[in-house]
Design brief:
It is built from 18 helices and 15 strands. By secondary structure, the protein is of the alpha/beta class. α4 packs across α14. GO terms for molecular function: hydrolase activity.
């Protein structure tokens, strides 16, 4: 498939002009609110949208936005989560969760009541630094996800904004933050891609991943992570492409191009750069205290690269950036989102908040937080802790003039523009999921990532081999055992050459002093304390990464990766020949 046409920069020019026309005569800041427009019907809005050329998504968006009443305008900027694995049939527990969140029983009812523009699918795994704001899961398997997204779109198609495709998003970063894990091609982590340092391989792998998301009905991925790993952050960690801004920038561009060529919008995150602080915004407001020059040189290049690659969305972060707007989280900072991101970096696409159910955003009531976020420059409010309160707060602010109508119309028009850019794309078949070509793309990226940090390069381990891991990694041990066996290496329960695996959250206490080989499957920092004569890093515990590791251990592949982060006492690679 070709890449989705019309960059956010160019689309932004049309959006600005058309929304200005739509908002003229409407309430601006300090003016009396305009009269409420009658609610449009899906039929009338469909005809309006159809009257604009199909290859003009910004024009279609502005035309549709001009037909929407207050309630539909407000709904288009909300993207909450919901409880339940089906759009219309949920368990009593899920119904109770939806009642507390939005005063309804089912996701479909939530869409109808609040005229929603989109919904995020949520869930988490054991090694997930984002689990704090994942209150539920509605991702079980690909067939269930496909049925759920179809039900969500059926409900949204009845709304006045129905002609624009409903947004279904998720955090499919690959690595420790991966919502859909079973029955799909699992790519190695971003840090693994950084170690491979091959943007073409990254683009090919992310195109495969995007195709599978599109097949399941997901059209917005909150990825890739554009944060440069300037600190040893555990919340970002292997979600980042690395510590080198230039190399990370090339990887971000490759991932964006791969996703969007498959018809899935990319949302680069977390602007202006979560990797510059080791604190966790799922718990507090991290302070980014670096001077502005360091932000320009270190934090911003991957975001610029993502924007230049055509990223349709950027996610803002709950970060206090003292060099630009001290004391104000970026989520609520006009200086950062409007002046810097739009004005200086030139981004004209959709700006999306990070989860508004995270503590830094919950300093304000949901309605007030949503209004402040829009005024700062966000266009889409993600994961509000109370849908009804956010909706009512936005509607009240629109009608009393504290939220200027032209600001809301501009946000809605950007959201609709993104939707129309995603429209009319053929849906890939479910048979593409975990297909041989997709697995090959993931394995090629994972193989290029494997890094040797100590020991003679590319020498096969002497068999037989015993595989051990830190606690809780039985599945990964089994995956590597199967891959080694397939590569011709005999694996025994004990007594063989010990290969020890460590992963996310592990420290020196999880190392094995008698291991001949220690392998880091997340950030490689733990290897600084390892005494094994051979040290390897895969940066990922995915099936593709374990297959690639088996090839190296069997002596059938050379570890060509280089550590994308600096390590004390270790080289970027011991394979110098």
């Amino acid at each position: 498939m070709g890449r989705v046409p019309i960059s956010p920069r160019r689309a932004g020019v049309a959006v600005t002009a058309l929304t200005a026309l739509l908002a003229s005569g409407c309430a601006g800041e300090g003016q009396a609110p305009a009269p409420v427009r009658p609610e449009a019907t899906p039929t009338s809005t469909a005809s309006v949208a159809a009257s604009v050329a199909a290859d003009d998504p910004a024009g279609r968006a502005a035309a549709l936005a001009g037909t929407l009443g207050d309630e539909d305008l407000v709904g288009q900027v909300l993207m909450p989560y919901a409880y339940g694995s089906s759009a219309t049939t949920v368990t009593p527990g899920s119904a109770a969760g939806n009642q507390a969140l939005a005063g309804v029983d089912t996701p479909a009812q939530m869409i109808a009541k609040y005229r929603l523009g989109g919904l995020i699918l949520v869930g988490f795994s054991a090694d997930d630094p984002t689990s704090g704001n994942q209150s539920t899961t509605n991702v079980d398997n690909p067939a269930q996800v496909k049925k759920l997204t179809a039900g969500l779109r059926e409900a949204a198609g009845k709304l006045a904004a129905g002609p624009a495709p409903f947004l279904v998003g998720t955090d499919q970063e690959y690595g420790v933050v991966t919502r859909i894990t079973d029955g799909v091609t699992t790519l190695p982590s971003a840090l693994a891609a950084g170690a491979a340092d091959d943007p073409a391989r990254t683009e090919a792998a992310w195109k495969a991943a995007g195709t599978e998301l599109a097949a399941m009905g997901v059209n917005l991925d909150f990825a890739p992570v554009a944060d440069v790993l300037a600190t040893r952050s555990t919340v970002i960690g292997s979600r980042s492409f690395g510590a080198d801004p230039k190399r990370a920038a090339a990887q971000v561009a490759g991932a964006v191009q791969g996703l969007q060529s498959a018809g899935v919008a990319a949302s680069v995150k977390h602007f202006p750069g979560h990797g510059l602080s080791a604190a966790d915004s799922h718990q507090e407001v991290p302070v980014v205290g670096q001077p502005r020059a360091e932000l320009d040189a270190t934090a911003f290049p991957p975001f610029r690269a993502g924007i230049d690659a055509g990223a349709m969305a950027v996610m803002s972060a709950h970060l206090d950036v003292t060099a630009v707007d001290p004391g104000t989280p970026a989520t609520f900072s006009r200086k950062l989102l409007t002046d810097v991101l739009r004005g200086e970096l030139g981004f004209q696409g959709v700006v999306i908040t990070d989860g508004m159910n995270m503590p830094p955003a919950k300093r304000y009531p949901p309605g007030e937080a949503a209004v402040k976020a829009l005024l700062a420059g966000n266009d889409l409010i993600l994961m509000t802790p109370n849908v009804g309160q956010a909706y009512d707060g936005l509607l009240a602010a629109l009608r009393d003039g504290s939220l200027p109508r032209d600001r809301l119309v501009a946000a809605v028009t950007r959201v609709l523009t993104m939707k129309f850019r995603l429209a009319d794309r053929p849906t890939p078949a479910m048979s593409t999921l975990d297909s041989a070509p997709h697995r090959a793309a993931a394995t090629a990226l994972a193989a290029a990532a494997v890094t040797q940090l100590r020991g003679k390069c590319g020498v096969a381990v002497s068999g037989p081999v015993t595989v051990t891991t830190s606690d809780g990694r039985d599945k990964t041990r089994a995956t590597l055992t199967a891959a080694l066996t397939a590569a011709g290496v005999r694996v025994v329960a004990k007594g063989g050459t010990r290969v020890h695996l460590v992963g996310y959250g592990d420290g020196s206490k999880d190392l094995a002093a008698d291991a001949a080989v220690t392998v880091a499957m997340d950030t490689p920092y733990v290897l600084e304390k390892a005494t094994s004569p051979t040290l390897l890093a895969t940066y990922s515990s995915s099936r593709a990464s374990m297959t690639a590791l088996a090839g190296v251990l069997a002596g059938k592949a050379r570890p060509t990766g280089r550590s994308p982060v600096p390590l004390t006492g270790l080289p970027a690679t011991s394979c110098t020949g």
